[in-house]
Design goal:
By secondary structure, the chain is of the alpha+beta class. It folds into three domains: 113 residues, Response regulator (Rossmann fold), CATH 3.40.50.2300; 120 residues, D-amino Acid Aminotransferase, Chain A, domain 1 (2-Layer Sandwich), CATH 3.30.470.20; 95 residues, Cathepsin B, Chain A (Alpha-Beta Complex). The strands form three sheets. A six-stranded antiparallel β-sheet has the order 5-10-6-7-8-9. It has a five-stranded antiparallel β-sheet with strand order 13-12-11-14-15. The longest helix is centred in the C-terminal third of the chain and has 20 residues. The radius of gyration is 21 Å and the shape is globular. The model has no long low-confidence stretch (mean pLDDT 90).
Length: 348
Amino acid sequence: MGKKVIFFEVKGGSDKGPDGYRKDTMPMVNALQQRGQEAEVIFFDVAKQQEIFDYVKNHAIAYVSRINPGNLKDESAYFSMLRQLCEEGIIGMPHPDAMIGYGAKDALVKLTDTSLVPSDTYAYYTIEEFKNNFPKSLTHGIRVLKQNRGSTGEGIWRVQVVDELPSEVTQVPLTAKVKCTEAKDNHVEYFELGAFMDFCEQYIVGDNGMLVDMRFLPRIKEGEIRLFMLHNHPINVVHKKPADSEEAFSATLFSGANYRYDKPEDWKELVDTFLQQLPEIMKLLGGYDLPLIWTADFILDTDELENDCYILGEMNCSCVGFTSELELAHNIAEEIITKISKDTTLTV
């Protein structure tokens, strides 16, 4: 097949095995090599950025990004190099702007015109926006605040006013007591609203800082449903049920949630509804090709007619792991080869 598929990793981080690689990287490399496609891993290092760029430009037909942005010392330099590679005709899996578009929490706000995301979902990019609007949105019930950075539920807070508010109140007083539960480990803290909002300023300042504010969906207790996607193909469905305790609402393994792996056909209604809306999702998120490996997480809700519906809670495509199902490496290798064949045919 000629040129290589380059997998980008970065040294360090909790996602590495004893050999220094992510546990799901070499299975993909090996699966491609078994199919006659050359592949190798390069560790991104900003000090060697030009050298890496030149090598990949000259030797690769495509790259696959397997770096958790939280492990990068200079995320902007890495994304800049990926953009340059895409401009040089290297097939990006995914394009860096698709990685940002699908992976950032504010993707939800861009999808409020679809049936997947409630219209009362907000993004705050400045402390002023946050302080102006959050006390108002909190009058409508329990809210969930999500920071854009972090992982495993860190900086995701369920916020509820402790004492009942008078019906005519249009914004919660800053002195009101609020009960805040963090998804990281379901621990509870009590604040005055003003003090909690001051605490949350850390999530807004700095690169890519923002907070997303959306309504709390109590049926999270029934479990979060994660679609594991290869481009536009759902490969499996992970049903993530929070721990059976009063405060638990987090669906991460770290917080004690139970995971069950189902087939897409077991969730046909959800899968069909989501796939029907994919063209609109792609358009609203910038028109880029879908990421190679990505996930969409849903929570059950009830509509006005008392029917079940599914609300999109998050998407992730920066570095979705599949270490518990390494046999998926063969599906991914097939998808990479198919995309290379399709994209090179289109450019001939």
